[in-house]
Amino acid sequence: MSTIQNSIDVILKQGMLPLYFNADENKSVAILKTLYNVGIRAVEYTSRGPEALANFNKMIEVRNAELPGMLLGIGTIKNLAQAETYYLAGADFFISPGFVPEIATFLIGKKALYAPGCMTPTEIIAAENAGVKFIKLFPGNILGPDFMSGIRDVFPDLTFMPTGGVDTTRQSIETWFNAGVSAVGMGSKLISKEVMQYEAYETIEKETKRVLDLIEAIRN
C-alpha cells in the first residue's frame, strides 16, 4: 500500500487526478485500463453507488494482476466506516467532499493519504492541524482560482488540488496552476457520462493525453 508522500508524489507528477464512477464493473475496469495505457498512475474511483465497493474490489484485483505502479484511490468518503472498509479493500489514498477529523486520525495513523475537501480557511486550518498535507479545494467552480491566490501565502506547507468545474481547456488549467495549485481533479469534464455510456474509451484516451500534454507545457 502506498505511503502518504508517495501518493502525493505520483499525483503531482501527472499534475491531474482523473475521477469517475460507473455502476458497471466492466466499464469501471475498462476505464481504469484506458487511463493506465495513456500514462496515468493515480486514479480516484468515487464511492457514489451501491456497486462501488464490489467494483473497487474488482479494480484492485485487476490492478494487482495487470497494472503495475497504478495507485487506486477512493473518493466521496464521508465517514470512518467507509474509510476502514476501503482501507481493508486496498485503497492507496482517500478523498472526501469535506473534512472529517476521525477519518484523518485513522488514515494518518495508517500512513495513508487523506485529502479532504475544504472551502474555507477555517476548514483548511482544522485539516492542517490534524496533520493533513493535501487539500482538495471543493467545489472548485464556486471557489475559483482567485480564492487559491488569496490563501496561497497563508498555507505554504500544504498542497492544493481543485475538483469540480475545472475545464479541460488550457485557459482553465493554466489559471489554476498560476494561482498556486499543484494538480487538478478532473471528473465529468474529462470522463463524461455519455463517454462512459457509449464506451468511447478512445475518446477518454485522447482527451487524457491532451490534458497531460497541456499540463506539462504549462508547468514548463
UniProtKB/TrEMBL annotation:
Pathway, according to UniProt? Carbohydrate acid metabolism
Check the record and name the Pfam families matching this protein. Aldolase (PF01081)
InterPro entries membership: Aldlse_KDPG_KHG, Aldolase_TIM
> Which Gene3D superfamilies did the record assign?
Aldolase class I (3.20.20.70)
Provide a Gene Ontology MF annotation, just one: lyase activity
Q: Does the keyword Cell division apply?
A: no
Q: Which UniProt keywords apply?
A: Carbohydrate metabolism, Lyase
How this chain assembles, per its entry, is: Homotrimer.
- Which family does the record assign? Belongs to the KHG/KDPG aldolase family.
Protein name as it appears in the record: Bifunctional 4-hydroxy-2-oxoglutarate aldolase/2-dehydro-3-deoxy-phosphogluconate aldolase
Q: Which organism does this sequence originate in?
A: Flavobacterium potami
Q: What is the lineage of its organism?
A: Bacteria, Pseudomonadati, Bacteroidota, Flavobacteriia, Flavobacteriales
